[in-house]
Design brief:
Elements (H helix, E strand, L loop, with lengths): L4 H14 L1 H8 L1 E3 L5 E3 L4 H17 L2 E6 L6 H15 L4 E6 L2 H16 L13 E2 L3 E4 L4 E7 L13 E5 L6 H13 L8 E6 L6 H11 L6 E4 L22 H10 L3 H13 L2 H7 L4 H6 L8 H10 L19
Parallel strand pairs: 3-9, 3-10, 4-7, 4-8, 8-9
Antiparallel strand pairs: 1-2, 5-6, 6-7
Helix pairs in contact: 4-5, 9-10
């Protein structure tokens, strides 16, 4: 059946409104590491986030995702694009981003401003801005808005109703208010279709609300989909081996290559990164597994290497029980 021009326009408009990846690649732009502006074409990590978002949206009508991330995988960028897509194409949406520091909040807001300023979609696909400030965008005709805040004191959104939330680096929110702020934010978002809560953070030890939410998500005790993407998914995380360099994998590297399907260029990149930082720092910022990320981050009493190995050997990769260790400091 041949579609009329009007029917084709309706199809395209529906795709723009509902297809987050299509919208991002056609209308949104990012600032690259090389300081140029280019379209937001998803990498493998971002494509996986898009897949999970679409899976949840199609099955439940709403999105609840908790993301354990490594270094520079572009997941904050994709989450920001998802929020902007919703508030700029749909009516009566209110998006909130809460970051762990004021500087991080500014960075995330600047990214969203760049999306809007460089959005090459024609009106009304790109809405007109009614208000724009240092921490908020308001699209008057849609009655939709986007704002950022910092996880400082209590009561970030007291009395507000949010439809889309991006809670960034919650493992690093100020400890004194983290639980109360998180609970208040979660209560401000109705459990209804066309709402979204996307929580993302790097690991920071095995305590705090992020670790608790992650563990509960893995165990199926909450509605969040636990998304972890290992470093070797990133196509750029590889290094060409120089002609003069004779690369010989160590026994540990050969084990990793077999376990995770790594090639020599990935192993060489990993070797260089460890040389630049440290073995433990690499595991914290570029983990192979979620357990490795948590165990090698935060304050450590025991050597992380045997702990990570032991956790991988446990039945179902879960410890039988978890206990607290309390150290008493004797003072004369």
């Amino acid at each position: 059946m041949t579609l009329t021009l009007e029917q084709k326009k309706i199809q395209i408009l529906e795709k723009i409104t509902n297809d987050f990846g299509f919208y991002s690649s056609h209308f949104l732009k990012i600032r690259t590491k090389n300081a140029d502006i280019r379209p937001l074409i998803f990498n493998d990590a971002q494509k996986e986030l898009e897949r999970v978002i679409n899976l949840q949206k199609n099955s439940t009508g709403k999105v609840r995702v908790i993301i354990l991330k490594g270094r520079q995988q572009g997941l904050s960028t994709a989450v920001g694009a998802y929020l902007y897509h919703n508030v700029s194409t749909k009516k009566a949406k209110k998006a909130l981003v809460v970051a762990h520091t004021h500087k991080a909040a500014e960075t995330l807001f600047t990214m969203t401003q760049r999306y809007h300023e460089n959005n090459n979609a024609p009106y009304p696909i790109k809405p007109k801005t009614k208000l724009s400030g240092k921490a908020h965008l308001v699209f008057g005709e849609l009655d939709s808005s986007y704002m950022v805040a910092t996880a400082g004191g209590d009561g970030i959104v007291r009395g507000e109703t949010i439809t889309h939330a991006h809670l960034s680096e919650i493992a690093f929110w100020p400890e004194a208010h983290a639980e109360n702020n998180l609970n208040g934010l979660l209560q401000s978002i109705p459990n209804t279709p066309d709402t979204a809560i996307l929580i993302e953070s790097t690991a920071n030890g095995v305590t705090g609300p992020f670790y608790r939410l992650w563990q509960d998500a893995v165990a199926g005790k909450n509605s969040f989909y636990p998304l972890f993407i290992p470093w070797y998914w990133q196509q750029e995380y590889r290094e060409t081996i120089p002609d003069h360099y004779i690369f010989e994998a160590t026994p540990d590297e050969m084990e990793l290559a077999k376990l995770y399907g790594l090639d020599n260029e990935q192993l060489y990149w990993r070797r260089l990164k460890i040389y630049e930082t440290s073995f433990d720092k690499f595991k914290q910022e570029y983990p192979f597994t979620a357990d490795e990320a948590f165990i090698t981050s935060g304050s450590q009493i025991f050597d992380a290497e045997p702990l990570v190995k032991r956790v991988s050997e446990l039945k179902n990769n879960r410890p039988i029980a978890r206990q607290d260790l309390i150290l008493n400091e004797w003072v004369d």
